[in-house]
Amino acid sequence: MALQPVSVSRPATIHDIAALCGVAPSTVSRALSTPDRVNVRTRERIQAAAVELNYTPNSQAKALSSGKTGAVGVLVPDITNPFYFDLIRGTQLQLKAAGYTQLLVDTEESDEVEASAIQQLRKSADGLIVGASRLTDEALLAASAAMPLVAINRDVPDVPAVIIDTPAATGQALDHLISLGHTKVAYVSGPVSSQSNARRWDALSLAGGERGIEVVKLGPFAPKTQSGAAAADTAVHSGATACIVFNDLIAIGMLQRLRERGVRVPEDMSIVGCDDIFGADFCNPPLTTMSFPIEQAGRVAVTMLLAQLDPLRSGGTRSRSVMPTHLTVRGSTAAAPSA
């Protein structure tokens, strides 16, 4: 049967292809989505018509028929925090290579915003990557049970996760300060909702006890540069000669405030940050900090999620991956001041 000419000034639909081929729209739909269900001659005619009309499948219609959207939601607590830049880049590149679109959501350090975003993304994404979730363990477990999900830097039983080994780096930071003669170290803590914050404090207090070093906890403080002034003031009055800080943003704010107060870093007080964000080595002085392969963490999380979405193709799934960490020593730490 000869193809009948059809004039199409708008994007072509399966109805246009059906009219061109003289078949039912349902036949066109089967030929394009499940070609094995249509005989070879009809299928080839429909495929030729689709090319002639420059037909592009409607993604929403495809999602309705296949149950797949081709998109993955990536949630982070604060999109302005440079720590998440490399994570977002890692997920973006890995998802793009796999043919997925990244849907980026800033959850504003809020468990309510995060929960609402996850609920909405259940309709528009095939899976989720959740960075440093602020949800309770129970809520994160429920979200993981409802759709494919991988958490980054959040360790909850039965939730697939990429864990950054910050306790190991915290121990390295403490040993570094001990080697410089510091005997009282303050931990400048971050948000109470951050599991990473709790894990670092637990590791630090345990290591301090094992090494006979006094460790005190200050805060909590919001994980922003603006919090550094209050953190610095608190640290000065704590009697500690060194601080291990929840993240680089607070640490950078502390450097600024300590300089204003005439407290010399590192001569009077040593500061260790966490995350090794862009700019940490540009500070005055350059910031000693804990470094993580955060872009790699994003890539690994995507690989783990894709294994959930297509286990046969991936060859199996992993439920947990631990990323190594290390201490990067720069100019913000030095020998403890003489008594």
UniProtKB/TrEMBL annotation:
Gene3D superfamilies: 3.40.50.2300, lambda repressor-like DNA-binding domains. Coiled coil: none annotated. GO terms for molecular function: DNA-binding transcription factor activity; transcription cis-regulatory region binding. PROSITE patterns: HTH_LACI_2. It comes from the Bacteria. Residues 12-66 form the HTH lacI-type domain. Keywords: DNA-binding, Transcription, Transcription regulation. This is Transcriptional regulator, LacI family. It comes from Pseudarthrobacter chlorophenolicus (strain ATCC 700700 / DSM 12829 / CIP 107037 / JCM 12360 / KCTC 9906 / NCIMB 13794 / A6) (Arthrobacter chlorophenolicus).
